[in-house]
Amino acid sequence: MAVAATEPAQRRNGVQLIARAASVLRALADHRAGLSLSELAEAVELPKSTVHRIVQALEVEDLVTSASAGKVRVGPGLARLGAASRGALRDELHPTLRQLSQELGETVDLAILEGDNLRFIDQVAAPQRLRAVSAVGATFPLHCTANGKALLAKLPRDEAAALLPSRLRAFTPMTITSRKRLWEELDEVAATGIAYDREEHTEGISAVGAVVGDAFGTMAAVSVPMPTQRFAGREAEVASRLREVCAEATRALGGDPAY
Which residues contact 136 (CB under 8 A, 6 or more apart)? Predict the structure, then answer.
């Protein structure tokens, strides 16, 4: 009887421990360079001794690891879980990409943030002979692609800034190389939920992009690239439909579609 009486308390303690561990991981995820135990305790509003015990347990599971200057950061185990989550997101979204490609008659791409680059993880190619196609698995810069800018706009300013190179490389005469101008555009993307690439990465190719997110905060960007000669007359139509599709997909995944 004594054991049975303690079970509800044990369950509550277990749930509380998981919640605290999750808050520690979220705080570390927001600080790629890591945090000291004191900084982490302040961030999650827990005693330093409690945070130390949680960090020790997470370190055993490879979910956190030591960083320089006595700090801790997210570990490779969390990265593996993130990769699995992104794979699941790709599988969930593939039918959406296929449907959107059929509706628009254009290529539709899916990309994620990977370090300070954009990586394409899925694509449905357009049926047209003149089309925009990039290899799945290829990486691209963030500052001059529609999907890259869509993802940057969803991040806190300091985190987005950390992903950008010290000098923004000009890939074409249309590439934005001014950080001030890029921030202004990202503010507009954050407000509208839609990002554009008007021949900024590749001459002759333009694109529109938007973000899909799930209930766990995993994000991916859907983009529709096409030859500029077709894009010029379809920009508003494609942007409107892409916004609708990404909002619907985000709701279906349990995320918040509000921009």
Answer: 120, 121, 122, 123
Give yes or no: residues 167 and 245 share one domain. Answer: yes
In a domain, 142, yes or no: yes
Residue 190 CA to residue 150 CA, distance in Å, equals 8
Number of domains in the chain: 2
As a whole-number percent, the residues of the chain with pLDDT over 70 amount to: 86
Cα gap 237→228, rounded to integer Å: 14
Distance CA 31, CA 46 (A): 18
10 Å CB burial of residue 95 (0-12, 13-18, 19+) is exposed
User: 3-state class of 223 per DSSP?
Assistant: strand
pLDDT band, very low/low/confident/very high, at 79 (cuts 50, 70, 90): low
Query: Counting Cβ atoms within 10 Å, is residue 54 exposed (0-12), middle (13-18) or buried (19+)?
Result: buried
What is the b/e burial string over 210-236, where b = at least 16 CB atoms within 10 angstroms of the residue's CB? bbbbbeeebbbbbbbbbbbebbeebbe
**Burial of 24 (C-beta count, 10 Å sphere; 0-12/13-18/19+):** buried
Same domain, 197 and 217: yes
Print the domain residue range for 62: 2-74
241 or 132: which leads in pLDDT: 241
CATH number of the domain bearing residue 84? 3.30.450.40
What is the tally of helices (H) and strands (E) in the chain? 8, 8
Query: Of 34, 56, 74, which residue sits at a domain end?
Result: 74
